[in-house]
Amino acid sequence: MKTASRALAAAAAVEFLHLAPAAVRLPPLRRTLARRTAGHGAAAGHIALTFDDGPDPRSTPYVLDALDELGARATFFLLGAMLERAPALGRELVRRGHEVAVHGWHHRQQWYPAPARDLRELRRASEAVTELCGARPLWYRPPYGVLTAGPALAARRLGLRSVLWTAWGRDWTAEATGASVYATARPGLTGGATLLLHDSDCTSAPGSWRATLAALPLIAAHCRTRRLTLGPLCDHALPLS
Ligand SMILES: [Zn+2]
């Protein structure tokens, strides 16, 4: 299959997956593509820990301190608009051994196709991550996890691999607590999982990052007792797309 049509097929499969998680009903090829983009790693003893929507000076430093204490490393999907306001925090992420990736420039879902705009915005975000953090990103995750064809193709052109997630803690709600985030994520915390959390409340309920922070020791303890390592996507052995 040609690269472009493969990316389109992957995008269509992922959209389907997002809107209707009954991926078992997908035909085998589309099921495989959706599974790859969802972030199932081949490293059996590894869980990819990922944070979206930062960097945020009000919350990310607390998450970084918690991760240091727990001895865990993660992948941070950054927003260009947030990074532009806190470039030192972007460099700090890398200095502390974390991986930086691209979440877009603004946090918005584009509902009408505009391939040139998609490429322009994604290139701007990717270049900001490279220049301000000092590390070239490898991954792209679209806002709201809705991967449409335009951004999927733009990401591919920029050498970014699109990755969603296989587990989340619903840490963006006003009702979220450390216990609820852990309880929600727990069934999905098995080897090869990719866990979605947020280190900023810029698109979530105000203060919801505190629930994320409180959940981190519970998630780390869960992994420790099952001999699972929490780490970044670059250590996750994702199958080739
Ligand atoms: Zn987001």
Walk me through what this model shows.
- The chain has 241 residues and is α/β, with parallel strands linked by helices.
- The chain contains 9 helices and 8 strands.
- The strands form 2 sheets. Strands 1, 2, 3, 6, 7 and 8 form a 6-stranded parallel β-sheet that branches. Strands 4-5 form a two-stranded parallel sheet.
- Helix 8 links the parallel strand 6 and strand 7 (194-198).
- Residues 1-30 have low confidence and may be disordered.
- Zinc ion binds at residues 52-53, 103, 107, 143, 203.
Structure keywords:
six-stranded parallel sheet; single chain; alpha/beta; two-stranded parallel sheet; binds zinc ion; 44% helix; 241 residues; disordered N terminus
Helix/strand layout:
Elements: H1 3-19, H2 28-38, E1 46-52, H3 60-70, E2 75-79, H4 80-85, H5 87-95, E3 99-104, H6 115-133, E4 139-140, H7 149-157, E5 161-162, E6 167-168, H8 178-185, E7 194-198, H9 209-225, E8 229-231
Parallel strand pairs: 1-2, 1-7, 1-8, 2-3, 4-5, 6-7
Helix pairs in contact: 1-2, 1-7, 3-9, 6-7, 8-9
Zinc ion is lined by residues 52-53, 103, 107, 143, 203.
Distance between the ends = 12 Å
Mean pLDDT: 87
The major beta sheet can be summarized as: 6 strands, parallel
Q: Give the CA-based shape.
A: globular
> Number of helical runs?
9
H/E order of the elements? Answer: HHEHEHHEHEHEEHEHE
Q: What's a quick, concise take on this entry?
A:
The protein contains nine helices and eight strands.
